[in-house]
Amino acid sequence: MLPPEGMSLLTTADDKIEADVLVSKLEAYGILVIRQYRETGAYLTLLLGNTTFGIDIFVPSDQLEEAKAILASGQEAEDEEILQDPSFSDESLKTSHEEFLKKLDRGVWWMAGIFIVLLAVLIYYALS
């Protein structure tokens, strides 16, 4: 495939998740981004939610160096720096996540109970 007019290839993401992260970061800096799926990647993403063929990330040719610098700046961050971010110690986020997990757990138990009842009914009718 040919690159879009006026655009240069920045990088190739391995999958949709990586592409989403890269695009989000670049768009936060006001850089226009175009994704181009390789081979049948677009169809795989529609059917399965992801692709294994890779996704080419294009940016305007005149912003290529700026985009490279933005992506390189993220690679310089150390784990300790990231973990010192206040959002990692935000108690309200922790509380809301714990509540969500408890709610999810209750939902799983309800679904398991319904499944067992339906299975018992199915077995009853199959044996009668």
Features:
single chain, 128 residues, alpha+beta, Alpha-Beta Plaits, 2 domains, three-stranded antiparallel sheet, 5 helices, 3 strands, 13% strand, flat
Largest sheet: 3 strands, antiparallel
Q: What structural class do the secondary elements suggest?
A: alpha+beta
Topology as H/E string?
A: EHEHEHHH
Output the radius of gyration. 23 Å
User: Spans with pLDDT under 50 lasting ≥5 residues?
Assistant: none
For the record, the count of structural domains works out to 2
Enter the CATH topology name of the largest domain: Alpha-Beta Plaits
The strand order across the widest sheet is 1-3-2
Termini gap: 62 Å
Give the mean pLDDT: 83
CATH class of the largest domain: Alpha Beta
* Distinct helical segment count: 5
